[in-house]
């Protein structure tokens, strides 16, 4: 009697799936493994914090690494081909930590009221003495700061404060303990659960929580658009456009002149003109801020020798914009000059010889040979230059921080204090985050960052369309 043939046991796939779907499949497995390790690390660190309150916070990383080390061989047995992708795992971790997470947090904060006043931390500045009842359920506040009602002091969502959080401290205020509120009556706070036996309550404070506010930040920005958003946006476009045009013209002219092989000492000239780009902009911009000082700067001193009065470079809104464009020209033309010289070296010299034989002048050779052939090389450079200067935080901040009005240049009548004369969208967002609402209005700054992203995306699409980038990609 013959035995029935049994089907062979299923074999695990040793080769990875092909195509884009295989890449996404592998990345998905790695992300699930990382998310699972992060969840385990979070749960174990929370359990450790309960059992040993003095445990260091970095234990969450230790638990995560341990969970990953245990999970990697298990996952490799299920998917043998995934082992080759483990080399990509560190890159994914860094991508998640330094790119995806900041973007996700920016989007999240844009729809909250997260700021220096609403940080999710206890308000240490308004701690007040408190006593705890014998059953450890009722906290009495003898004197409320600033004479406010208790619900106002605690920033409760409702008059009863049910479900809100208070923060209890001992005499040394070393370890804050958060407790949920059941109700309030007069100056007495009834807790949902009894306070820990190890806590000797001596002080109480409120929790400066942050919460979702929907589109409130965007409504605030657009409600004040005429005093900040649109003026700053128009200046950002103007600044980026003029910078690219002036730098390109200066670099093109100097590049054509210095490419002439009959010019004696051209390498010396190239080296000298390259120096502004070689010196770090952090140094150059602040140096120019000192040189353009209205009273003591060498620029005005030199103009005075020519009989020209002192120019308020960084004090007047218009002159401050001129100063920013001129300094950015000083910093940017060497790059355009170098790009021009490099592009000219790719043009066949036979074209110029043939044009000379035909009687073409030097100007005709430039307009009919040089410029058309440079268009292909310069288009991506100009587009990337515009995108860079659209978000050129460094030159605005470093140059104008030495002005009497501080970063952003002199104030403009009718504009918000956070939007100076030379502020572009990015520096305006920075000023909003670090110079408003107690110095930390991260929610409004995040909303500005999202607006900047969409504006940059829109302008980039328009530039690519105008330059024919999409048509080139289809070929």
UniProtKB/TrEMBL annotation:
<comment type="similarity">
    <text>Belongs to the binding-protein-dependent transport system permease family. MalFG subfamily.</text>
</comment>
<feature type="transmembrane region" description="Helical">
    <location>
        <begin position="22"/>
        <end position="45"/>
    </location>
</feature>
<dbReference type="GO" id="GO:0042956">
    <property type="term" value="P:maltodextrin transmembrane transport"/>
</dbReference>
<dbReference type="Pfam" id="PF00528">
    <property type="entry name" value="BPD_transp_1"/>
</dbReference>
<feature type="transmembrane region" description="Helical">
    <location>
        <begin position="318"/>
        <end position="337"/>
    </location>
</feature>
<keyword id="KW-0813">Transport</keyword>
<protein>
    <recommendedName>
        <fullName>Maltose/maltodextrin transport system permease protein</fullName>
    </recommendedName>
</protein>
<comment type="function">
    <text>Part of the ABC transporter complex MalEFGK involved in maltose/maltodextrin import. Probably responsible for the translocation of the substrate across the membrane.</text>
</comment>
<feature type="transmembrane region" description="Helical">
    <location>
        <begin position="271"/>
        <end position="291"/>
    </location>
</feature>
<feature type="transmembrane region" description="Helical">
    <location>
        <begin position="57"/>
        <end position="79"/>
    </location>
</feature>
<dbReference type="GO" id="GO:1990060">
    <property type="term" value="C:maltose transport complex"/>
</dbReference>
<feature type="transmembrane region" description="Helical">
    <location>
        <begin position="442"/>
        <end position="464"/>
    </location>
</feature>
<dbReference type="InterPro" id="IPR035277">
    <property type="entry name" value="MalF_N"/>
</dbReference>
<keyword id="KW-0472">Membrane</keyword>
<dbReference type="InterPro" id="IPR035906">
    <property type="entry name" value="MetI-like_sf"/>
</dbReference>
<dbReference type="GO" id="GO:0015423">
    <property type="term" value="F:ABC-type maltose transporter activity"/>
</dbReference>
<dbReference type="InterPro" id="IPR000515">
    <property type="entry name" value="MetI-like"/>
</dbReference>
<keyword id="KW-0812">Transmembrane</keyword>
<keyword id="KW-1133">Transmembrane helix</keyword>
<feature type="transmembrane region" description="Helical">
    <location>
        <begin position="86"/>
        <end position="111"/>
    </location>
</feature>
<keyword id="KW-1003">Cell membrane</keyword>
<keyword id="KW-0762">Sugar transport</keyword>
<feature type="transmembrane region" description="Helical">
    <location>
        <begin position="232"/>
        <end position="259"/>
    </location>
</feature>
<feature type="domain" description="ABC transmembrane type-1">
    <location>
        <begin position="233"/>
        <end position="463"/>
    </location>
</feature>
<feature type="transmembrane region" description="Helical">
    <location>
        <begin position="381"/>
        <end position="400"/>
    </location>
</feature>
